[in-house]
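Support reply, case 0932

Customer input (verbatim):
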Amino acid sequence: MSPFLQLSITLAIIILAAKIAGWISQRFGQPSVFGELLVGVLLGPSLLNLTHLPFITNMHLEEFVLELGEMGVLILMFLAGLELELGEMARNGRVSVLAGLLGVVVPIGLGAAAGFALGMETRSALFLGLSLGATSVSISAQTLMELNMLRSRVGLGLLGAAVFDDIFVILLLSVMTAMADGSSGADAVLLTILRMTAFLVLSVLVGLYVLPFISRWLNRLQISRGNVAMAVVVMLIYAVAAEVIGGMAAITGAFLAGMMVGRSGEKRNVEAGFAMLGYSFFIPIFFVDVGLRINLTELPLQALWLVLIVSTVAIAGKWIGAGLGAKLAGMNWRESIQLGAGMISRGEVGLIVAAIGFSEGLLTREFFSTVVGMVLISTLVTPPLLRWVCTLPSPQKKAREVP
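Our regenerated output:
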């Protein structure tokens, strides 16, 4: 079987399994993304090892699936940004900053304390804490979309807090890597701040002044699906610029691209095109691929207690920290609990931090595997937990129901 046919049958299995698992998950009252994540774990090296079955000889197949999945998360975050407006995000700026800040500081503090309690030296304990400070809201964003809550105060605050979370973690990572190299962290932090500022200012200016002109020009040319194609190009350029210029995650760039493109008069057509393209192909691949990259067999049984301890600290730290920040910013307790739950999921940033710590000799292989297990647990826990706290009846509603 040719490499292309191997890729084709693998993608067919992934998409079919994702849709069936998502449907089953919804039948049990859970978000579809929970089923897609879980089936990814079952299809991965933990059980079936789909990309290494006997008829799979293409050594690059796993990499192809990974890259298609990365495209899926870009589309997902672009769609999330497309539904929001700069004015809405600005009105929730206080929530975003406080929830993002405390959502990083508290888990880092608790993670470092756990590291000290487990006998780690100072820098290693701090790196462990930093790997617990990152957030990946792509999964929470999908859950909120299914609940029609993305444009609620919780959804707006969650997405804004995730952007600030990304900024804070990368700044702290710059400081800690500079300290690990034995150099001063001031220059590294200043350079990181300048890069982030340059990217954010440039992306907003292009979105406000350049993209509307391009949209009007494409309308005059009457190119078939011209605005959808333009939106794809903008999303990819913003994603690349976020990493190359801003030193931030590509998904942050895709999210900002969605917000900028959403200001155009072609928002409805762009959204329809992206939703069809994303949810029928790329996005299911992303959620399943998250599970495909997790190998439970690599987690030593003797380290299972470490995984449970670190995962508990990670979940509690992010939930308490982000939730407390939201409460201090003026949200009620119910909204604060919901926002905190939505920030629990970890992702690629946490793994990147842990990988840097491992390469620098600050994290042992055991603790690196522990962080991988924490990412798995926090990712699987978030969708059902977020749905549960978002569907609980409010105290006012309960009071009205009492005869």
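We compared this against your earlier run and they match. Two observations from our side: The chain has a mean pLDDT of 87. The chain has one domain: 3-390. Please reopen the case if you see a mismatch on your end.
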